[in-house]
Amino acid sequence: MKQEVNVASKADLMLTADPGSSASKFIYNVQKKETPIALAMSPEVAVGVSVSSIKALQKLSMGSTSPINDAWLQIPPDSKKATVVGYLAQAEYQGNARLDLLKYEVIVPKFLAAIGAIAQQHDLGNKFSVAIACLLPFGEYPNKDELKTQLSKSLADFAFQGSRLSVELADFVCYPEGGGLAIYQRQQLGDEAFNKATIPVVMLGHRNSSLLLFEKGKLSLQQSTTTENGFINLVKQFCTLTSGQSPSNRLVEAIYQAGESPQIDDIKHLIRSQDEDNIQQEAELLKSVIKTAREDYWRSIKNWLDEVMPSRYSEVFLVGGVAQYLRQELTDYFGEKARYSDRIMAQIQEVFPQLEQSLTSRFLDVFALYCDVDEFEPPKPKGEREQQARQEKIRQEFAIR
Hints:
Blueprint: E1 13-19, E2 24-30, E3 37-41, E4 45-50, H1 51-60, E5 71-74, E6 81-85, H2 87-92, H3 103-121, E7 127-136, H4 144-155, E8 158-160, E9 163-176, H5 179-189, H6 191-196, E10 198-204, E11 209-215, E12 218-219, E13 225-227, H7 231-241, H8 249-258, H9 264-267, H10 276-308, E14 316-319, H11 321-325, H12 327-334, E15 338-339, H13 342-351, H14 364-373, H15 382-400
Helix pairs in contact: 3-4, 5-14, 7-10
């Protein structure tokens, strides 16, 4: 699975991406600065929006907004219709995450929106180069060449917020989701140990669940697999069992944050009743339905794991935001073999202290990929540094004696 990307050389922008269905996660570096930057964008996309409509809306806005929250594209740049991405698509144009499309089919506007916003924030001008490393669901990984072709063509001539850009795709590599963590784990274990082991990487995401199985250092295409049983299925069941709820990003976050023991404060903004007598009753219903949907979703994940997991392995790496959501169930299922990448999560929090804590687990894969392709050495976690300092102090004390 190893691919080479010559990012250290000539690209003005290095971008790694996990354009997920619950959030688009990017980590980038402009002109080889020492510290990378993390960027999360809302996943919604609205296609075919009138450019005149967008400009009319802009006249009504007060003050300037972040380009991340005001992202709209024209492809080609003289088109009268625009593609709106992220917060603006969700807030003003009834955009959605387009789960009806393959992820690779909806990735291109997400990439262009992120690149346009970064160019504006960092004064890259209207002509520059970018090197891209991205993650795709295992089932869509064979489409990587088509994605590269579409990206190269669209980047060459498009407009962001009405300004024309010409971006050269200097380098491009693509990995299946979970691949970033697999690379990170190989570095932690060392090539010799990794090449001898059977290592399953289970990626549990919003849209898909995937198993990447590494045998003797290589990805087994025959035994790796994916299913469309993602967190969105839990959300859809919740909507089916309740009244007036729709599978919005807001609902997804509410259910995720509620965890295994939802409290009133977690769901009060979902309550639709106005009558005081009905509010408590609806709250109890929502709590009950979340628990039921969670139990049913875990049962479906367990059945899938029973079917696809290899018979022998010493440890399994559990990746993605859903792995944290189902951490207790997964720990009960896998026992001492379960690994949750807590070390790299601590590193993400140190490198990106402003990143919302709820997003940390979702950045695991793309951060691990960034560290590899841009040869970035993250700091050791604070706990490790403190332990080393204590050990060094003890050594010095014995040396003095």
